Amino acid sequence: MVSDTVIVGVLTFIGTGLVTAAGLWQWQRTQAREARAAFRARRVEALGEVWEALSDLEERQRTAMSGQAGSAVPGRSGMREVNLLLLRSSPFLRPDEQDWAQAFAQRVVEIDALVRAGVLNDRPDDDLWWETTERVPPAAHVAGRAACELMELRAKLGDRYAAVMRGDHE
User: Could you list the residue ranges that cross the membrane (predicted)?
Assistant: First the structure.
């Protein structure tokens, strides 16, 4: 028969193996949880950077349209900045967020081009809607539709950013 010493040795070996496996499993779970937390933190940071860049682009454009001294037209340089930021942030942004951000920047540049081209100069105060936050019905003109789309995109991005900040959305 098998001696008690051998049985104790085998049980000790099996117990040590089980404890080691449980420790390794727990360590892997901890590593995965820390990686998720780091990714989420970087995602929140990336969304914040994109939100700030888009807000700055729109603010610069609105300031330039109001004719304040020292204001520069955002145009291509603003789009370039946003596009580079989107490229850097792409691993942390979802495809719909990237699409929304790209469309947002495009609408700002589109409105800028239309207003500067004089498309809206039928009446003296026709471009006043863009200098303020006044809502223009989509059927008013092309720039009005772009402005409505811009407002919808701002709301979508703002809602998503707020949800991610609250932890309601991955």
Answer: 6-27
CB-side neighbour CA atoms (13 Å) of 73: 11
3-class secondary structure, 118: coil
The answer to whether 72 touches 60, Cβ cutoff 8 Å, is: yes
Contact 148, 104 (CB under 8 A): no
Q: How many domains does the chain have?
A: 1
Q: Does residue 8 lie in a domain region?
A: no
pLDDT tens string 94-128? 999 999 999 998 888 888 877 777 655 554 455 55
Q: Is residue 141 part of a domain?
A: yes
pTM for this one?
Answer: 0.68
State which residues form the domain around 134.
40-166
Q: Which amino acid is at 91?
A: P
Nearest to 57 by CA among 87, 37, 77: 77
**Dist. CA 17–CA 9, nearest whole Å:** 12
